[in-house]
Design goal:
The complex is a heterodimer of chains A (204) and B (465).
Chain A: E1 9-12, E2 14-16, H1 24-27, H2 47-50, E3 72-74, H3 87-95, E4 99-102, H4 107-115, E5 120-122, H5 125-137, E6 143-146, E7 151-154, E8 157-160, H6 165-173, H7 179-183, H8 186-195
Parallel strand pairs in A: 2-3, 3-4, 4-5
Antiparallel strand pairs in A: 1-6, 6-7, 7-8
Chain B: H1 6-13, E1 15-18, E2 24-27, E3 30-33, H2 39-48, E4 58-61, H3 78-94, E5 97-99, H4 109-116, E6 124-127, E7 141-144, H5 147-156, E8 158-161, E9 165-172, H6 181-192, E10 200-205, H7 207-211, H8 214-222, E11 231-234, H9 238-244, H10 254-266, E12 276-281, E13 288-290, E14 298-300, H11 314-324, E15 339-342, H12 344-347, H13 350-360, E16 370-373, H14 378-386, H15 389-396, E17 399-400, E18 421-424, E19 440-443, H16 446-455
Parallel strand pairs in B: 3-4, 3-6, 4-5, 6-7, 9-10, 9-12, 10-11, 15-16, 15-18, 16-17, 18-19
Antiparallel strand pairs in B: 1-2, 2-8, 13-14
Classes of the chains: A alpha/beta (204), B alpha/beta (465).
């Protein structure tokens, strides 16, 4: 927080995860939430979809050597629904994902991602189909998400992306880690609190 | 002047100011914390040398990982023990009030907040758990948040937030016999979709909601997030005030009168403007059961399972059938059940146990079914035992447990095994949710779970009513 990290771009190869309504229990099973820190979360994204009960690898894009090293994740609608567990974006981020491109994101998930400096950007249904097709046809395709111009570029293509303006500002201005921003107003917070009747228990 | 919603009023009175990002800094009146999503947040405070800014507005308990059969410390699960110890250390170091395992106030955060009268109308509330929307039943703006936001609330008692739109959802008329609050919210999610509430706060109203008691309203608000809405609420009324009167953290005497005056003032104006309004009829709602892998994939109990190609998301339906193994077009009645779970922040309160006990009384759980009843709090357990509900359940063959989240998310030893099918009064039927990656969950009301437990399969609870 002492140093300001501006997030304006994310580039690299991509990995697609197809399907709507992929919930955070699928992204990270609850048993891994018993760990006291986020340190090892990068080992667990989609664990039960990637490994069977005996620990043998299953077919999954995150296991596919073709997609190894991907820093962008392509998804469909309402990605990250369900539990508020920040372990989900932590797992994706620590696995190597630096931006997520999808049709839509669940509210808490998108907020959690932004606060970690992981942009979630939306594109239209046709665009995501095209993006998924492009990466499945050639997993070495390089993509660049640019938050300042609100575009995603690959090959000779450029498509527009969207994200809430407040999130875009927080990321590009480097104020996505909001604690310092909020803490600076602590005196004003106390004044707002004092005006609310319940903070003094409705004393007369 | 156009009328304002409760959401507008509370948002305005709790706004500290606008941040350089354009977000609003919102004061949080009550912060509830538990063992799962807080340890890294406290670590971040320590790293930055910060304290808890408003520790008198912060309360902690343990709920997610606590065993419900045997609570002796240290827990047999070493990780659960470590995480519990981390919370115990953090609340001690930072001076936060803590309702631990030995406290009668221990329980699921969303059960104890209301039960203690900590949750009040006209307040903002945050908790590192998506089902925080439960507290909206009181006319509270309650936000489920992630760990970085828990850190922000600890350090500043505020959150950086974007304002939502408000959708009014009216449930008109009356519910039929055997139809419960759980069926109402499952119906709403089925109609509006699991992502349909994105960007909205849901305000529930209409004759059906007006007649509901507080526990029923909590069930409805609890699952707002399953419909994609971060916030769900009901305007406070006499039912709300009567529930709160005399609870430990609610003021008494003339202060209570002043509180009621404030609580009344925050309700949405009669002429309030909404961004969207939808109307449903109570008579159209049946006992509802989920058949798929998200809470929107449900049918009325008399219906047949949908054909994937006719569903809103054919690929999603196919994926659900692949996991669940059902045949499209088959009736939901008769679906085999191996496990029955009654509990959770959705349906782990006294009214839920009364409804289930009414079905279970004098009958026997099917020998092929493992059935658990898990109170939402130590207080709920005590009250249920005073009424003899524990005996009704025990005689019918249900296990009567200690308070906690239990098999809703299976972070404690209560889990499905293999391909077991669970009839569950909880809130999520996601793949793997109840502890087995191959496990299957059917969400339904507590009364429907009890009926399924007796029969070893899904039945229509109305045959008992």
């Amino acid at each position: 927080m002492s140093e300001i990290v501006k997030i304006t771009k994310a580039s690299g190869t991509a990995v697609p995860i197809r399907g709507n309504d992929i919930d955070t229990d699928r992204i990270i099973p609850a048993r891994y939430l018993k760990e006291v820190t986020f340190a090892r979360m990068g080992e667990y994204p989609f664990f039960d979809e990637r490994y069977d009960a005996a620990g043998k690898k299953k077919d999954h894009p995150f296991n596919d050597p073709e997609y190894k090293g991907a820093s962008l994740l392509f998804v469909n609608k309402n990605f990250g629904c369900g539990s508020s567990r920040e372990h989900a974006p932590q797992a994706l981020y620590r696995f190597g994902i630096k931006a997520i491109v999808g049709e839509s994101f669940a509210a808490i998930f998108a907020g959690n991602c932004t606060m970690m400096g992981l942009p979630t950007v939306t594109v239209g249904e046709k665009d995501i189909q095209q993006l998924m097709k492009s990466v499945e046809e050639n997993p070495r395709t390089e993509y660049t998400v640019d938050l300042e111009s609100k575009t995603l570029a690959y090959g000779n293509q450029k498509i527009s992306i969207d994200l809430p303006e407040t999130y875009r500002t927080a990321l590009t201005a480097g104020s996505w880690d909001s604690t310092a921003l909020l803490r600076a107003n602590l005196e004003q917070v106390k004044k707002t609190a004092a005006k609310l009747p319940y903070t003094h228990n409705f004393a007369g | 002047m156009a009328g304002r919603t409760l959401y507008d009023k509370i948002w305005q009175s709790h706004s500290v100011g606008v941040l350089p990002t354009g977000q609003t800094q919102l004061f949080i009146g009550l912060h509830l914390i538990h063992e799962i999503t807080t340890a890294p947040a406290f670590d971040m405070l320590r790293e930055k040398g910060m304290d808890v800014a408003f520790r008198e507005r912060t309360f902690a308990t343990v709920d997610h990982i606590v065993p419900t059969d045997m609570r002796r410390r240290p827990f047999l699960d070493r990780e659960a023990e470590e995480l519990t110890q981390a919370l115990e250390k953090n609340v001690k170091q930072f001076g936060v009030e803590f309702f631990g395992l030995d406290s009668l106030n221990q329980g699921i955060v969303h059960v104890i907040g209301p039960q203690l009268g900590l949750t009040q109308p006209g307040m903002t509330l945050a908790c590192g758990d998506s089902h925080t929307s439960t507290h909206g039943a009181f006319g509270t703006l309650a936000f489920g948040i992630g760990t970085s936001q828990v850190r922000d609330v600890l350090a500043t008692q505020t959150l950086a937030m974007d304002k939502l739109k408000v959708r009014r959802i009216n449930i008109n008329g009356a519910l039929g016999t055997g139809v419960y609050a759980k069926d109402v919210i499952l119906y709403i999610i089925r109609r509006l979709g699991v992502g349909g509430g994105k960007g909205f706060a849901y305000e529930y109203g209409g004759a059906v909601i007006d007649r509901m008691n507080m526990e029923e309203r909590m069930t409805v608000c609890n699952m707002s997030i399953e419909g994609g809405a971060l916030v769900g609420y009901v305007n406070p009324d006499q039912t709300t005030f009567d529930y709160l009167k005399g609870r430990p953290y609610v003021p008494s005497g003339t202060a209570f009168e002043r509180a009621v005056g404030y609580w009344k003032s925050v309700a949405s104006d009669a002429a309030a403007r909404y961004d969207d309004v939808v109307n449903y009829e109570g008579k159209d709602i049946e006992p509802t059961v989920t058949w798929g892998i998200n809470p929107g994939q449900s049918v009325g109990v008399s219906e047949k399972l949908p054909m994937p190609e006719q569903s809103a998301d054919p690929e999603g339906a196919k994926k659900a059938y692949e996991h669940m193994g059902w045949t499209p077009g088959a009736p939901i009645i008769g679906t085999p059940v191996n496990v029955a779970f009654i509990g959770s922040c959705t349906n782990g309160r006294l009214a839920d146990f009364r409804a289930a006990a009414k079905i279970a009384k004098g009958r026997k759980v099917n020998p092929n079914v493992r059935a658990l009843v898990v109170p939402g709090s130590a207080e709920v357990k005590k009250l249920a035992e005073q009424e003899g509900l524990d005996k009704i359940f025990a005689e019918a063959g249900f296990q009567w447990r200690e308070a906690g989240c239990s098999m809703c998310l299976a972070m404690n030893p209560d889990k499905l095994n293999g391909r077991e099918v669970s009839a569950s009064s909880s809130n999520r039927n996601f793949i793997g949710r109840q502890g087995s990656p191959q496990g299957r969950t059917l969400l339904m009301s507590p009364a429907m779970v009890a009926a399924a437990a007796l029969n070893g399969k899904v039945v229509d609870v109305r045959q008992y009513e």
